[in-house]
Design a protein that fits this description.
single chain; 440 residues; mainly alpha; Hypothetical protein af1432; two-stranded antiparallel ribbon; 23 helices; globular; binds fe (ii) ion
Length: 440
Amino acid sequence: MDSGAIERPTSKRQPSYMFSDVLIPMSTALDLAEGREAGHAQRVAHISLAIARARDLEAAEKLACVYGALMHDVGVIVSGAGLSEYTRGDERLVFAPMPLLTPEEAATGTDSPEEVASRIVDHVVHGSRVVQELGLPAAAVQGVATHHERWDGAGYPHNLRGEEIPLVGRIIGLADQVDALASETTPLLARRNFATWLSRLSGRDADSDLIDSLRDLGRSDDFWLGLYNEDLSSDLSRMCRNLKEPRNVKMDGFVEAFADLMDSRLPYTAGVSRKVARHVERLARAVGLDENHQRLLRAAAFLHDVGQLGVAERIMAKPGILSVEELEVLRLHPVHSHDVIAGITGLEEVAEWVIAHHERVDGRGYPDGKVGDEIPLEARILAIVDSWVAITSDRPHRARVSQDEARRRLQSAAGTQLDPHLVDVFLRDVITNEPVSKSA
Ligand SMILES: [Fe+2]
Ligand SMILES: [Fe+2]
Ligand SMILES: [Fe+2]
């Protein structure tokens, strides 16, 4: 890989994006957070949009269905924090069967069913707050807030009933249930059982008018081919573009808000992404990268660990030495980060930096064991800052070290783990000028 990719287009203006540009790829990070295989959120979006079209909703409502569906379970990231205390296995799996079970049923068998059930209910509350902070339109926020309400009033968190439930929430809730049923079986059986599922949901869990539309849709090959399309994400983007989606998302703000959300997952990571981003930007400037390049590196700093959503908290926060399997899972996180980021137009190159942020210059890093300059410059920058911020921050099982000790540790990692030249620049130009209180 080319490491000295310093010359690049230098547009200083931040490009504007459509929500679908960022939400479609980011939704795969949410599938990871629920311990699902990638694609659940996109399939819920596909089904929701199909229903919205069949009901002839306006373009803005159709888009709200897509956005809300893509982000419907974003609250799981917050609700899942600390949940491993109550679950024996992978805490994320508590969330996967949500649309088909009551919170109490899903919490059965955990060490504290009451606590776990209330966390499940809370994912809706957190989720609607998060999508509001991400700037999604009000109808999409409402959709997220009500995706577990049920037609007969037995849903949560507000036990809304019938038409009290906003239409977008009714649509997303139905789509979520249908995809949960479909993902338990093969495409062939899903199609065969479809009508039976729908009659079971009708009037109890879901609006019977919506069910009728969905029943019609289920008769068409297009619906099923779309749902099981390998490239569902391109399909969804195309459909969103056709709805004259506005370009009103600024990437920087979106990425920062998403990083804050990920930081809130573990108590000790609050604010860590911003710290990393600040140092990364300064190191990038110190080595002479231009403004646009610095901006992309900031995005990399904010998103480099997005793949950690796919790693159970039990592994992330484990005090002792990890088992071989746990290590394997942990070591996949840069690959997951890459896959999420690579889907965002304009950040393809950032994905190549991010996948290499745990490589070591001596070749003993992961995932590819790249050596020295084979590791992109940007990844070597990320690695230094990541190490610095880790050792100067308190973690559950060890306190932060002093700034002098942190300098010594970074220097001793120079040439093995870290790029020695960049370590020099970092300690000389970034840390020396850093007020002591801020460096931790
Ligand atoms: Fe949910
Ligand atoms: Fe879901
Ligand atoms: Fe990482």
